[in-house]
Amino acid sequence: MIRKQVVKRMSEVREASNDNKELTLLSAVDRIVTLAKDSQLSDEFFEEVEPYITYISIRQDITKMQALMLALVIENAVNSGSLSLSDIAVYLDCRNVQVMMYKNEIEELVKKGILRKEKCHISGKYEYAITPTLIDTFAKNEPFQRQSYKNATAIQFFQHFYDITHLRHEDELSTELMVEEIQRLMDENPQLPYVKALRRFRMSAVSQIVITHMSRHLVLYEKISDFSS
Description:
Radius of gyration: 21 Å
Order of helices and strands: HHHHHHHEEHHHHH
Distance between the termini: 64 Å
Structural class: mainly alpha
Helix content: 55-70%
CATH superfamily of the largest domain: Winged helix-like DNA-binding domain superfamily/Winged helix DNA-binding domain
Largest sheet: 2 strands, antiparallel
CATH architecture of the largest domain: Orthogonal Bundle
CATH class of the largest domain: Mainly Alpha
Shape: elongated
Strand content: under 5%
Number of domains: 2
């Protein structure tokens, strides 16, 4: 079964490459958003957009619907910084509920680190935004690579921890994703004495975060002392 799936996927890649020799990630996004404007997500639209969402889907290892939603977020977020599901509905000229049907697809992109979810301080609504890493990836026509925390020094570890928790503080990351990201930070740095010591206590993820938050202040204070001396 797995072999058949791999063969099918390779066949799709070859077909996409043959049919779209001049296609790039950004040119595919351009075609998608051009066709999507006021399309109302019609059957005709999906027929026309098929080769472009297939291309992005294969290159970025995401579903075709995720490729469509990603393209729409990229186009609109470049201008406004972030956008909500209702903003996408306006762009497509369709009902909000039609876009809400694909909310889980967008949330998966957030979990993969491709998109960022943040709370608008004015409207109170959650919106979706792109990251500089994503833009660089598409500009270079390369597959997206999630940020790696591997082989961090102790200072780098605590700096990464601060960056993650700061995103939560700014409502640019949910509590659930913050916990997941911090666990990934620790999983990728089992060699650090701090991580080894922390995990010997077998405490909950939340407790680990609280202790690391306090430890970070101590580390930064020590760092400032060394600098000033």
